Amino acid sequence: DVKVTQSSRYLVKRTGEKVFLECVQDMDHENMFWYRQDPGLGLRLIYFSYDVKMKEKGDIPEGYSVSREKKERFSLILESASTNQTSMYLCASSSRTSGSYADTQYFGPGTRLTVL
Amino acid sequence: AQKVTQAQTEISVVEKEDVTLDCVYETRDTTYYLFWYKQPPSGELVFLIRRNSFDEQNEISGRYSWNFQKSTSSFNFTITASQVVDSAVYFCALSDPYSGGGADGLTFGKGTHLIIQP
Predict the structure, then answer these.
(1) Which chain B residue has its CA at the smallest distance from A99's CA?
(2) Distance CA A22, CA A76 (A)
(3) Is the Cβ pair B43, A109 closer than 8 Å?
(4) How many angstroms separate the CA atoms of A93 and A113, rounded?
(5) Mutation test of the interface with chain A: which of B38, B52, B54, B104, choosing the one with the most A Cβ atoms within 10 A?
(6) At A83, is the secondary structure helix, strand, or coil?
(7) Which of B96, B98, B108 faces A42 most closely, judged by CB atoms?
């Protein structure tokens, strides 16, 4: 079975804190993604990675950075958390099959982050 | 730019009714993929279906069916004989594999909240 796990389901942090959200997948997938989900806005892509140490900005990268040191792990970093980063964060992964670029993305359970 | 529109914000039906969730998309490319995901109250997005732009056959999986019409850029999802467990937010998404290098993300619609009343 496909498995994507996220380090926390719920997280409460204070403004200005550095926040790490961790995502691990066990499917040997090349691609990994971070989205945030907000009411009325749907899901928006923050960053993605198609290989170890590679990263690409998504639609809303401002205020975030990422790290991918190992294939199975993709971290989202909020350098200095702000209240407008209160949101649900979803991690996903997909394989990169030759000849088929848009393989299915499988999602983790999400982390609901509150920044006070 | 790509766009996915799910015009129905919320639908409420009584159990056993059939219900159709609409999805309309915009893309300039001829090669693309469409997806449906289900998000139950637990929060995790559950993959339901993936369809490429060259396959216009309708798909049926149990009580679920999908109608892909390229002429109207629509990929609608029907649940037959709905059940309370079908209550969730459903997202339609579009991937454009040739819009750039690497692995592109999905463009999601804003979702339809489906409520099945007992």
Answers:
(1) B97
(2) 7
(3) yes
(4) 20
(5) B104
(6) helix
(7) B108
- Pairing state of beta strands A73-78 and B10-14? unpaired
Alpha-carbon distance A76 to A21, whole Å? 5
In angstroms, the CA A61 to CA B112 distance is: 26
Best CA proximity match to A113, nearest among A75, A83, A73, A80? A83
Q: CB-hemisphere CA count at 13 Å for B97?
A: 18
pLDDT in tens, A39-92: 888 899 899 998 899 998 888 999 999 999 999 999 999 999 999 999 999 999
Contact criterion met (CB < 8 Å) for A43 and B108: yes
Give me the tens of pLDDT residue by residue for chain B, a chain 118 residues long.
788 999 999 999 999 999 999 999 998 878 888 999 999 998 889 999 999 888 888 888 899 999 999 999 999 999 999 999 999 999 999 986 554 444 567 889 999 999 999 9
CB proximity list for A98: less than 8 A, separation 6 or greater: none
Residue B51 CA: distances (Å) to CA of A45, A69, B31, B85: 21, 32, 11, 24
Residue from the list A31, A42, A50 with its beta carbon closest to the beta carbon of B110? A42
Residues of B in contact with A102 (CB under 8 A): 32-33, 50, 52, 95-97, 104
